Amino acid sequence: MYDDRLDSARIALKIGLGGAAFLAGADKFFGFLADWPRYLSPLAAAILPLTPRTFMHVAGVIEMVVGLAILGRWTRLGSVVAAAWLVAIAVNLVLAGFFDVAVRDVEMAIAAYALARLTEVHDAHRAALSTPGVASRVDVAA
Q: Which of 16, 94, 119, 135 has a 20 to 30 A CA-CA distance from 8?
């Protein structure tokens, strides 16, 4: 059965991951947090048809959209995309020699996956409650 106490974890992950994705994406245009192009591996920079700065702007737009998806009604989809995106970023960071930051991004990917799963259970519970007679017969956490 669904436990409402899980909502505090789901909401914390939603705000934290969604907000971080949006803010990191926006910062790709301003550079207050980091010199983002510096984190692009030489291999990635060599094969991209864009300059590192332009690539970071594209990445920034994607991250802002993913952040808004997580914060909005598409939390599960945004979380799955964020998890995959963060693993890809971690691979790039390993190739660039930023092992410490890569570990952090893998941990964030795991948190994004956890948010996707918590959201899946939460949404199934809400759907069961909105269907008359089903909530009493269905174990939505199964």
A: 135
Contact 21, 63 (CB under 8 A): yes
Q: Which two tokens stand for residue 95?
A: 């190739």
CA distance 103 to 117: 21
Q: Where are the domains of the chain?
A: 6-130
- Burial environment of residue 138 by CB neighbours within 10 A (0 to 12, 13 to 18, 19 or more): middle
For residue 123, CA distances in Å to 94, 118, 128 come to 36, 9, 9
CA angle 112/102/38 to nearest 5° reads 115
Q: pLDDT tens-digit profile of 51-60?
A: 999 999 999 9
**pTM (two decimals):** 0.87
